[in-house]
Design a protein that fits this description.
Length: 142
């Protein structure tokens, strides 16, 4: 089944691989991935730097995964464009210096490939976390 604003991919590029450790920021923005109930980015986030806030969280919802059985999804540029505008303007003029991007779900990982200079998202992926991560490689029964 095809999901709007989402492309299925067979492989995640090396740039998007790797484990991440997450420390939460004082502020987080949620991204609805359906494209239907779109959340809106927040304007003027760079002004938070005057209050000592230097980074923010971008929390990626997994709504798009409910429409498919695929394990690897790439979110469309159209879906992330409004958030890229928010990131770019929030980072400009020494505002928010870093964006932590992660999934809202325990069973899906969100991985972003970001421009090192502007923090803008170049590609954003959702990857299904295998159940073996939680139960181990072998199933044990008694």
């Amino acid at each position: 089944m095809e999901v709007p604003n989402v492309q299925t991919v067979d492989v995640i590029p090396d740039l998007a691989r790797g484990k991440t450790t997450i420390q939460t920021a004082p502020i987080g923005i949620y991204v609805d991935t359906t494209g239907v109930n779109a959340t809106r980015p927040v304007n003027n986030l760079g002004l938070l730097s005057t209050r000592g806030i230097k980074y923010a969280d971008l929390i990626i919802g997994t709504e798009a995964t409910e429409q498919t059985n695929e394990k690897y999804l790439k979110l469309s540029k159209d879906l992330i464009a409004p958030y890229n505008d928010m990131i770019f303007t929030g980072s400009r003029d020494k505002g928010l210096r870093r964006w932590q991007i992660y999934s809202s779900s325990l069973t899906w990982m969100a991985k972003a490939v970001q421009n090192k200079d502007t923090q803008v998202i170049e590609n954003l992926y959702l990857v299904k976390v295998p159940y073996t991560v939680w139960v181990g490689q072998q199933s044990h029964t008694r």
